[in-house]
Amino acid sequence: MRGKFIRQSRYRVVIALVAILMLILPTWTSPVAAQQGADNTPFLTVTPPQPTPVAVTNTATALVMDVSGSMGDTWQGGVKIDSAKAAANQIINMLSQEEQVAGGVTHQVGIASFLSDAYTLLDLTTDYNQARSVIGSLAPLDSTNIGAGITMGNQILSQAAPGTARILILLSDGLSNVGLSPDQILSGPVQDAVQAGTCIYTVGFGDANSLDEDLLRRIAAASGCGQYYYATDVIELEQVYVRIRHQSTGSVLAQFSGQVTQGQTVQAGSFDVPAGQGELAISLLWPGSKMKLILRDPNGAVLPPNAPNVHITTFGNLVYALVTDPIPGKWLVEVFGEEILQAAENFDVLVSARPAPATPVPLTPTPAPLPALQTKNDGFPVALIFLLLGGGGVALYVYATILKRRRVPGWRNISQRKRLKLSPRCIVTTQPT
Question: Which residue has the higher pLDDT, 176 or 401?
Answer without folding.
Answer: 176
